[in-house]
Amino acid sequence: MIGLSVAVGRFVEALFWAILRVAGMVGGVALLGLVLLGALWWLIRRRR
Fold first, then answer.
1. Distance CA 35, CA 15 (A)
2. Taxonomically, which superkingdom (predicted)?
3. CA–CA gap between residue 25 and residue 8 (Å, rounded)
4. What is the distance between the alpha carbons of residues 15 and 43, in angstroms, rounded to a whole number?
5. Residue 48: what pLDDT?
6. How many C-beta neighbours within 10 Å does residue 15 have?
7. Residue 18: CA count within 13 A, CB half-sphere
8. Can you tell me the distance from the alpha carbon of 45 to that of 31, in angstroms, rounded to the nearest whole number?
9. Whether this model's pTM surpasses 0.90
10. What is the pLDDT of residue 3?
11. CA-to-CA separations, 12 to 18, 19, 26, in angstroms, rounded
12. What is the mean pLDDT of residues 10-26?
């Protein structure tokens, strides 16, 4: 019974870290996109 409890705990911990990793990647991609969009807008505005 204790072995099963440890296995479930490790599974939940691995799931938690996987969710955080995916959220971090999505956040990083979104942040990069916003920075590129801002740089593009700045370049277009500067030309006029």
1. 30
2. Bacteria
3. 26
4. 42
5. 74
6. 10
7. 6
8. 21
9. no
10. 81
11. 10, 11, 21
12. 97
Residue 2: CA count within 13 A, CB half-sphere: 0
Q: What DSSP line would sit under 12-39, residue for residue?
A: HHHHHHHHHHHHHHHHHHHHHHHHHHHH
- Whose CA is closest to 17, among 9, 7, 28? 9
Task: Summarize pLDDT for 21-47 with one digit per residue, the tens.
Answer: 999 999 999 999 999 999 999 999 998
Spatial separation of the C-alpha atoms in residues 22 and 26, rounded to whole Å: 6
Question: Which pair of structure tokens corresponds to residue 44?
Answer: 């277009």
| The token pair that represents 3 in the structure block | 């072995």
